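Blinded run. Sample ID left blank on purpose so nobody reads anything into the name before looking at the predicted structure. Input follows.
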Amino acid sequence: MANASMRAAVCTRAGGPDVLEVRELPVPEVREGWSLVEVKAAGLNRSELMTRQGHSPNVGFPRVLGIECVGVVVASTDSGVPEGTTVAAVMGEMGREFDGGYAQYALLPNDLLMPVRTELDWTVLGALPETYLTAQGSLDALGAGPETGGRLLIRGGTSSVGMAALSIASGYGIETAATTRQAAKAAALTAGGADHVLTDAEPLADAVRAIWPEGPDYVLDLVGAPTTVDSLHLVRGGGTVCVSGMLSGSWVIPEFEPVAMVPSGTKLTAFHSDDVKGRAGTAILQRVIDQVEAGTYRPNLDRVFGLDEVVAAHRYMAEDRATGKLVLAP
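Blinded prediction complete.
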């Protein structure tokens, strides 16, 4: 593909959605240790919004954002991933240290590629990797599984990861409650598998105690730092809180005092999707794909945007209008 060009959404500098510009760029040349992937779909993630705003100090601009994508291998230096292989890729500094999925082609490190088998539509497949790998990893970190039973509270339930966690936990037979600040999204949470939907109609602690007087066994906190300490006091004594998101946009708990703020015996953990990048996540992602194809898990695809709609997509994401996953189709 020498001298070929492609279209890509380039983040020209830190700022609002308008700093994203669709440009013609050269198709990257394959080099040792890397593979060229024709991108068929790229999931949109809040971390890309944060990077665009300038909150990722290691990211230089201009940069093609996108921490995940799915597509087809065009050329590879890895004999185990031949041309024509369907692959997914997540994290590993995609869209940060090197250009990511907001483009028609992406040059990716071989060790990030996850070969998968699927008959799913590309946009449905594109809704799965980062979202479901994070949801599955978070439930594993909580110790919530198919044999555990118990009660799970998901804070930030209408996020893509929240909806995915509902799908998995419901399949496990775990009783679930999910929060949303928008009452209009309550029906989507019920349809997504939530046994209880909690809104801002009353204080969260009161709403939780009304259904579970002792509190949930597990809390999956996708809001992040501002609600972590509160979650530690919502979970039952000896229960577990896992922080896996930052919908609030804040990473830091100010003046965190563990002895004062963590109830005795209660456990606080976290999950980062970089832990399941590449080969480490391939089997998990294939299992998720199989479950979606079987109708057991839901893709939770809210909306698909074309590359030319990338500015509108980031506005939509920033305004918290989605219930589930947003996908870019280059």
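Unblinding after everyone has recorded impressions. Residues 223 and 247 are 5 Å apart (CA to CA).
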